[in-house]
């Protein structure tokens, strides 16, 4: 089969398209013929090997030769212990543990998969597992009357988070680069901020901040919160995450402004509700671009350098 592989961390040019053996599923695994794989920021971080937490399991070299976790496709074979799927089933899920989505076939744990709704295309379904779970859990506390800010709101998780926070009745402020301001407004943001021109931590305080690209100090984020407010980050620099985990707890006790890292729960139970809301018309899936398998390096660069509006999908 064709797969995009890499042997060392680095820029997109370390990737190459190769012929590799089709993987064999274990007892509780499923072999999926990949129809679509969406790109997440975690793929870009896994390529570069930075921040340092992106190297978990592979400090000096990548633990998995093939990136890509959010996949949709057809079951090609099942392991001896698989009971929920059979050959030909259309499925999708987040294969964050094993990755392998930038290929024609990928092995996925049975528990990570669920059946693809007929109302969604494979490309649409592939956008939901990781980004949808982050957005749903990150905005779960939003409610009417709150002021919610989403930093990094123009990408995959952010595009869903804007809509979810807006539907909760909150007043939503979205932050990203200038090229994404109109897009974020179209998703329902009441206010938009170009981070290059304004520092949101020095504007009015917010009741909930969901930060998808954390890189500031814990003290700056505390300043952005109302008393009783909550800051949650998903991804960002290692230094910032460590500060939020350590200083954030102390600052919360002292000031009543809670800072923490969103521990995202994985699995179908956490993204199927997002899929249903898309089917019901409550949420819109925006696919900016699709790329063929051989263009994975360009697709990753497009997402990693902050150009993507919503999601980008690779179609083998």
Characterise this structure:
The protein is of the alpha/beta class and 316 residues long. It is 28% helix and 27% strand. It has nine helices and 15 strands. Strands 3, 4, 5, 6, 7, 14 and 15 form a seven-stranded mixed beta sheet that branches. Strands 10-9-8-11-12-13 form a six-stranded parallel beta sheet. Helix 5 links the parallel strand 9 (171-176) and strand 10 (191-194). Helix 1 (41-48) packs across helix 9 (296-304), helix 3 packs parallel to helix 4 (156-167) and helix 3 packs across helix 8 (268-280). The longest helix is centred in the C-terminal third of the chain and has 18 residues, at 238-255. The chain is globular, with a radius of gyration of 19 Å. The N and C termini lie close together (11 Å).
Any chance you could write out the topology, listing elements then pairs?
Layout lengths: L1 E4 L10 E4 L9 E10 L2 H8 L21 E9 L11 E5 L10 E5 L3 E3 L6 H5 L2 H10 L8 E5 L4 H12 L3 E6 L4 H6 L4 E4 L11 E6 L6 H6 L1 E9 L4 H18 L2 E4 L6 H13 L6 E6 L3 H9 L6 E5 L1
Parallel strand pairs: 8-9, 8-11, 9-10, 11-12, 12-13, 14-15
Antiparallel strand pairs: 1-2, 3-4, 3-6, 3-15, 4-5, 5-7
């Amino acid at each position: 089969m064709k797969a995009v592989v890499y042997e060392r961390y680095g820029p997109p040019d370390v990737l190459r398209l190769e012929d590799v053996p089709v993987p064999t599923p274990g007892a509780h695994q499923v072999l999926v013929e990949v129809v679509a794989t969406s790109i997440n920021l975690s793929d870009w971080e896994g390529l570069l090997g930075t921040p340092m937490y992106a190297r978990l399991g592979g400090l000096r070299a990548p633990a998995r030769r093939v990136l890509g976790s959010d996949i949709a496709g057809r079951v090609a074979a099942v392991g001896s212990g698989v009971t929920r799927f059979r050959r030909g089933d259309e499925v999708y899920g987040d294969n964050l543990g094993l990755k392998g989505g930038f290929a024609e076939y990928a092995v996925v744990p049975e528990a990570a998969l669920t059946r693809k709704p007929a109302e969604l295309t494979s490309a649409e379904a592939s956008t939901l597992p990781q980004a949808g779970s982050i957005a749903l859990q990150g905005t779960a506390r939003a409610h009417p009357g709150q002021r919610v800010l989403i930093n990094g709101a123009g990408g995959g998780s952010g595009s869903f988070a804007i809509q979810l926070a807006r539907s909760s009745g909150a007043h939503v402020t979205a932050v990203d680069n200038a090229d994404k301001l109109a897009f974020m407004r179209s998703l329902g943001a009441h206010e938009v901020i170009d981070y290059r021109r304004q520092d949101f931590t020095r504007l009015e305080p917010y009741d909930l901040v969901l930060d998808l690209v954390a890189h500031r100090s814990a003290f700056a984020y505390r300043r952005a919160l109302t008393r009783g407010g909550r800051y949650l980050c998903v991804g960002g620099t290692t230094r910032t995450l460590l500060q939020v985990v350590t200083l954030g707890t102390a600052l919360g006790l002292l000031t009543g402004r809670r800072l923490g890292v969103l521990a995202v729960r994985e699995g179908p139970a956490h993204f199927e509700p997002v899929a249903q809301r898309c089917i019901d018309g409550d949420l819109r899936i925006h696919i900016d671009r699709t790329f063929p398998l051989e263009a994975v390096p360009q697709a990753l660069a497009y997402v990693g350098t902050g150009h993507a509006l919503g999601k980008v999908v690779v179609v083998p």
